[in-house]
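User: Predict the full complex structure for these chains.
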Amino acid sequence: DVKVTQSSRYLVKRTGEKVFLECVQDMDHENMFWYRQDPGLGLRLIYFSYDVKMKEKGDIPEGYSVSREKKERFSLILESASTNQTSMYLCASSYGTVNSNQPQHFGDGTRLSIL
Amino acid sequence: GNSVTQMEGPVTLSEEAFLTINCTYTATGYPSLFWYVQYPGEGLQLLLKATKADDKGSNKGFEATYRKETTSFHLEKGSVQVSDSAVYFCALNGNKLVFGAGTILRVKS
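Assistant: Here is the predicted structure of the two-chain assembly.
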């Protein structure tokens, strides 16, 4: 089975801090994704990557950056955390081209609170 | 752009009741369609998918048929169980995966 592991289930940080969320997948998938999940809004794509060192903006990239130095690891960075970034963050990975019919495999999520 | 609209929840049913969760989409081209499920405290997992018109996806007693003429992909199950309580997301994959807002399902024993 595909395993997508997010480094923390719960995280509490302060406004203005630099925050790192880590995600690792063990199935050699080309594509990795970061979403945030908010009630009533579903999942919104922040950034994705289709190869090492490659990244593309999603629908809501403002205030975030990403890093993919190794194929199995995709990091989400909040440069200067703000309270409106309090959310559930989900990482996913998939095989093949980004627009293929291959499903995405998700981690269990990180619930991030910014105080 | 592409979009997905799901019926609002929460949907509350008694065990063994029939379930329908409506999903309609707007898309250019011929996207693949998915239903994902999120159990409490977990990430999303794929429930079923359909990749072309008239395809029927099925898994764990759930079914959905890709209807191009009505741009719909409604999720159905004949007899729900308490363990089906979760959030259900409809999604389409054109040039990227687009999710609906999710529908909470609560099943009472």
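The interface with chain A takes residues 4, 32, 34, 36, 41-46, 49, 51, 89, 93-97, 99-102 of chain B (CB under 8 Å).
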